[in-house]
Structures are given as structure tokens and as C-alpha cells.
């Protein structure tokens, strides 16, 4: 009897053990199999591999971001869920000094691999160094992988380039580099039995922002429909699109929302390009659109579970802030330190700088770049940058200096701002981080052109009228001042334009006594960055000839190749935009510690751009320019024609009435 009882108890224990094991297995399966999928994501890191200063609401600054923090968080999530997927949606490059070794060291793409990113795609800024720069970057990354057996580079996915349409030598250079790297339109990545089909696209606006690519990109909707069909044939469990297209408050311009609507079979869209921070995702049908902001300030995380109908339901979504609460991974920090040494030696040494060298102390509350885009007005940071251009030309030309009448910078080339505190070389570079010169050295150079006085007035009108339509076109002058009324007719908003006396290096703000009238036929020397100068030169074509600005040389002959008019110092080196700013920051009066201090004058508006908000009819109609006079004339002619037609009709009606009465 006892033996039977013991046998029964043993059987009960065995059954219980099996049940417990089954429950544990089911729990593990729910975490690591097709019952639950975790996706981590980034986009628009823009070479922000290190932590950086960010202004807080209380005016204080905090160090945030950095790949070392992102790696720590990825590791933490993967410790809980080893099957988590990690993706990036492009624009991993261009924005800090790391871009200076983009071609030679491929620091950005290599470090994405180091932190565990499995797949990425093109952003428009990957093309900033043109075809040869992009090709060099891919081959440098491959060389890094050959030298480091532990390095796994991200898969590179781009589906909307048809190489039959892109046949130039530069196109072929990019195609070959992608083939060498092993790039595909799509890939299938499997973790713990879950297969995700992943593909990448670059949208219409992003393509328009990448003229240096020289490529024609296919429509992302039609491309996605084709790729989705191919992935469905492979019986993948989920489809993820890495889209560098973005979302927009205007639904007609919200490319990734349109993509989700037109291609509903996509389960997840990681949406880059517009730097959108979606605290809650956009849901279109069964498609989740996710964005984590920019510069690595957040790591996006989402978890999805099957809905029973072959699709997925979002279970959890969050953006983890990469702030001081997240520790920095020591190995990643060590890797980045090596790259920083390379930057100091290979790039900054030619300018006599190092990355962390302090240029100035700042107590001015400069606008953020977002604020400058959001509001059309004068900004201290814009004034500082345009002043720095004139200062740098003076230093470069020395005794041969020819006075600069106007320096101008556009919002679209201002990439960052200065918080309060120390300003380093790295900070100055980040503000003007775009482009490459004719010397193939990082940084747009300054160029010198000439415009007539009449064209300078048109420059003011471009700022006043075009900025409301395209905020990146807003201009900040040094050497000129204008008043505009936002309520006046478009292309006739400017009411007063003046030249100003040289204010560069002055401690006192601009005053009325320093204004001078403009002579329409006189040639004035204008300095700007290469990209901004080219954009000014394109105004006439873009406006269909309505606005005419033709950059010229000192003899008044039209310029076609702006690179011939790059400003060089006395050693023959190009004067870069960022270097102009850095050297100007160093030039101010010093404090007790011997550090330059940014003048308080940049805290307040100096009436370089005055807004007259009046709706008084006199203010709305006074000082019409030629465009307004033509429009007024057309309106007057139309009114006269209407009056004439009415009079003729009235005369005929009256004649008929009289005729009837006479009968």
C-alpha cells in the first residue's frame, strides 16, 4: 500500500514538474518568439556620436545623447529580450566633426555596427560629399570590418534606385560601392524563429534635399508595393520599412502617412528625415509609424504581438531619453576617443585647433534653430554668424582687404545653436557643419560676389516674402538693414532698405545714424557661404524671372562657377564658414581667465530686420516696387475693363428699353 502511495506521489510530482516547465517555456516563448517582437530604433543621428550639450526649459544645460548611452540601453533591452531587433532610418552622418573623417574612417557607419544596429538606409546627408565621398566611406567601412573580426556592419538597404535610369559615371561609382558593400533592396532578418522583412526607401523631399547625389529616386509608394509583394512570397512574419521620408502636419506632405495608407501591408515604418519626435506613434490601420527625434537624444522601443489575423498589434511604445540616468558604455567611449584623436591630427591641426578647445564664454540666450525656423525675425545667432564672415575676410586678406558691403547667412545652413557656458571648437563646427569645398576638405567655404544696389533690395525681398513659404530661406545680414510689413502683398513686403556701417567687432548695437542709402546701379561686394551663394544665384530661375539676382565678379560679369570665387587666406587655404565663426568667437574682449566673452549686443535685436505690423492702408501701399506697380497697373486695367463692359452693357440695355417704349 505504501509503495502505491509513493508511486502515486511520484507521478504527481512528475506531472507538476512538467506543468511548471511548460509554463516557463510558454513564458520564454512569449518573450523571445513570435508571440512578442521588440524593435529598437534610431534615425537622424547626424554624426552625434558623442554626448552633447542641450538647453533645458530652466535655461540650464544638460549633457545628453551619444552612442555610448545608446549602446548601454540596447544591451539592457537585449539582456531581457535577446531577440530584439535594432534598426536605423538614415542620416547617420553629417553634423559634427566626426564627418571630417567620413571618407577615410567611416566612423558613423562603423559605430552603428559597434552598438548593434542590424540595418540602415540612406538619408539625404549621406550624399553631402558627393559620389566619390560616399564611395570612399563604404570602402572605408569594409576595411574596418576586415581589420576587426568582431565588427558586424549594418546591412544597407535601399529599394527605390533604378540603376537603369541612373547611368552617369558618378551614378556608377555609387552603384559599385553599394555592390561592394553588399547592399540590397531588402533583407530578411530572423531572431528566435521570427522573420522580419526589412527594406529601405528615401522619400521625395529627402531626395530634393540631396542634389549632390546625382540620382533619380523612384516613388516610394510604387517601390514599396513591389517590395512588399516579394517579401510576402518569402512568407515573412512582419514587414518593416526604414523610410527616410518623414511625417508632416500637412497630411498632403506627410510622406510616411501616405505610404502607410497606400501600402497597408507594411507593419512598421521607422520614419526619419523630418526629425519628428513621436511620443505616441501614428497608427494607420495596422501600420505603426514611429519616430524618435534626432541626434540620438532618444532610443525608440516598441513591442508588438500577433492579432490573430496575420497582423500585429502594438503592445508597448516608448522613447527612452539618453540623458544622465543612462550610463555610458566604456568600450564605445574608448572607440570614440580614438576617433577624436584622428580628427585632431588629420583635420583640426590644419586650423590650429583641437576638438575640446574653448573659444569663448557665452552668457547670451541665443535662439534655438527650431525657434529660428518657427519665427520670421532678426536673431542674434544669425547676426553673429554673418558678422563672423566679414571678420574672417578681413583676417584672410590682411592689407589687401577690400571692404565687404554685405555678408549674409540663411537659416537653412545653420545647424545648431550655442547654449550658455563655454563654447568649444566642436560647438562652433556644429553650427556651420555642412558641405565640402573645392579642396575636398570638410566645410563650405566663403565666396565673394558682387550685386547691384537694386539686387540687394531684391535680397531683402527674398527674405521678407519667400521665408513665409520656405523658412530655410530666411536671411540674416551684416552690413544691411531692412523693414518689411508681413501684411503687404507678396514680393512687395519690404518698405525700406539701407546699407549700414561696419559693425563687426563693435560692442554697441546698430543705430539710425549708421544707416546709408543704397545706390541702385552701384556694385556692392557680398560674402556668403558657397551653398547660400548658389541658392541666391538660383532665385531668378526659381521665381520664373520675377525676382532677379545675378551674382557677378568685380567687373560686373555674371558668375557661372562659384568655386572660382572662393575666398582663400594668404597661405592659399579656403576660408571655411565654421572657421570664420570660430575665429570670430576668439576675437572678443577677454574675461579675467583670459577667455573671449560673447558680447551682450547679440542678446537683443539690432534693427537689422524691422517688422512693421501695421494694417493701415497707407502702410500697406506705400513705396511700391516695380513688381507691385505692374500688379497695380494690371488691376487698374482690369477695373477699367470691367467698368467699360458694365457701361457698354448698361448702354445696350438702356437702348433696348428706350426702343420698346417708343413702340
From TrEMBL:
Q: Give the family this protein belongs to, as stated in its UniProt record.
A: Belongs to the 5'-nucleotidase family.
Which keywords, in A-to-Z order, does the entry hold?
A: Hydrolase, Membrane, Nucleotide-binding, Signal, Transmembrane, Transmembrane helix
Transmembrane segments annotated in the record for this chain: 629-650
- Record's SUPFAM superfamilies? 5'-nucleotidase (syn. UDP-sugar hydrolase), C-terminal domain, Metallo-dependent phosphatases
Q: Name one Pfam family in it.
A: Metallophos
**Signal sequence residues:** 1-27
User: Any idea where the 5'-Nucleotidase C-terminal domain is?
Assistant: 374-533
- CDD domains annotated for this entry? MPP_UshA_N_like
Q: What does UniProt list as this organism's lineage?
A: Bacteria, Bacillati, Bacillota, Clostridia, Lachnospirales
Gene3D superfamilies from the UniProt entry: 3.60.21.10, 5'-Nucleotidase, C-terminal domain
Q: Which InterPro entries match?
A: 5'-Nucleotdase_C, 5'-Nucleotdase_C_sf, 5_nucleotidase/apyrase, Calcineurin-like_PHP, Metallo-depent_PP-like
Full protein name: Bifunctional metallophosphatase/5'-nucleotidase
Q: Where is the Calcineurin-like phosphoesterase domain?
A: 38-276
